[in-house]
Amino acid sequence: MPHRDGVLLLGSTGSIGEATLDVIRQHPGRFRVAGLSAGQRWERLAEQARQWRPAVVHVDEAHAGALRRELDGLGIQVLCGREALVELPAREGVDTLFTALLGTSGLEPLMTGLRAGRRVCFANKEPLVTAGGPVLREARARGAVLLPVDSEHSAILQCLQGEAREDLARIWLTASGGPFRTWSREAFLGASKAEALRHPTWTMGDKITVDSATMMNKALEIIEAAWLYDLPEERIEVLVHPQSIVHSMVEFRDRSVKAQLGLPDMRIPILYALCWPRHEALEMESVDWARLARLDFEEPDTGKFRSLELAREALRRGEGWPCVLNAANEVAVEAFLQDRLPFGRIVAVVEDELAAYAGGHRELDELIELDRATRRRAGARLAS
Predict the structure, then answer these.
(1) Do 104 and 55 share a structural domain?
(2) What is the mean predicted confidence (pLDDT) over 29-45?
(3) What angle do CA 137, 141, 145 make, to 5 degrees?
(4) How far is residue 13's CA from residue 110's CA, in Å, rounded to a whole number?
(5) Are 56 and 7 a contacting pair, CB within 8 Å?
(6) Which has the minimum average pLDDT: 68-72, 98-102, 196-200?
(7) Is residue 185 domain-resident?
(8) Is the pLDDT assigned to residue 64 strictly greater than 90?
(9) 193 with 93, same domain?
(10) Which long-range contacts (C-beta less than 8 Å, at least 24 apart) are formed by 27-32?
(11) In contact, 78 and 64? CB cutoff 8 Å
(12) Of 194, 14, 41, whose CA–CA distance to 103 is shortest?
């Protein structure tokens, strides 16, 4: 029987996790599910486990007992706890680590995957933003395959396939502009939670939807791109493209431009990461070019979306600052979603934490502690 890639999917019950399982379903001869993990959605994890029959599943400790009872007799090992999650990618039978965990929780499992020689597909921005230096140094030292799943970075990866990196002049990250693209600055600062969660193009989880509303998601992608493609921030451009058909572009020294286009469906970059560098078949509709008729582009309003310049400043100042930016943003977004912080204060919290940081963190353990310390400090400020 031909070998099927064993995929360990971390964050299987979120929107990216569900889309990844749909992609795997379409390629039963290519992939098998080696393991699944979720946080609190243990009932949905149980349904997935019964369908896919992985060797192991991981859930938070509060729901491990219920999940074990639900899966009793199926021969599926149920694990819980942080240490077990971090060790999962090194398990026998795992060929590909696909991490779609929220926030920085995927950083240490990602590092385990690199050290274990797994193909690593990462769908969340935060690990590379928090510790891009250690992650990339580890990947290069191991000769590891590290593949972005973000639609923008997947687009850049596709555009650069077969190209000489020294020919690259700059890249363009496209952005939908979120729900507040046309709003005045005053109205934007007073936006409600319901308005911030009403994305015009993509269906995503609450945290990334809020990040899209502040354009912090694009700010984080600027930092990711700097690490992934070894570019200074001034060679990374952002362009608002409300149709979300052009997913990003690259410009070469001769001023020719390549772009990757397609419908805004995360299954496309998911499949490309899993099958890189091949483009395998996917059951979905194609772009109707005649009906689309036009593609619009505009520069972002950096006065309104201050997060973009904060990301550039963090990159210019060096390792540590992106970690602070990300940690403070996660705390602020969580407070906003819990109705403890107005929308207009989210980016201000990030600015405050960046202003308080003195620098000096570079190694992985230092950055992990910096992330925790920033969260504690930002949380304490919000509580005072």
Answers:
(1) yes
(2) 95
(3) 85
(4) 18
(5) no
(6) 196-200
(7) yes
(8) yes
(9) no
(10) 27/275, 27/280, 29/2, 29/4, 30/4, 30/5, 30/275, 30/280, 31/4, 31/5, 31/6, 31/7, 31/96, 31/274, 32/4, 32/5, 32/6, 32/7
(11) yes
(12) 14
pLDDT value for 301: 96
Cα gap 41→52, rounded to integer Å: 17
Inside any domain, residue 380: no
Point out the domain boundary residue: 97, 118, 148.
148
| Residue 30: inside a domain | yes
Question: DSSP letters of 51-100?
Answer: HH--SEEEE-GGGHHHHHHHTTTS--EEEESHHHHHHGGGSTT--EEEE-
- How many structural domains are present in the chain? 2
**Does 39 map to a domain?**
yes
91 and 218: one domain? no
What is the C-alpha to C-alpha distance for residues 201 and 215, in angstroms, rounded to an integer?
14
Left if phi > 0, otherwise alpha if psi is -120 to 50, otherwise beta: which for 170? beta
Among the three residues 122, 148, 174, which one is the final residue of a domain in this structure? Answer: 148
d(CA 365, CA 378): 20
Average pLDDT (291-300) is 94
Distance CA 312, CA 315 (A): 5
Is the pTM above the cut of 0.85? yes
* Residue 353, domain extent: 153-375
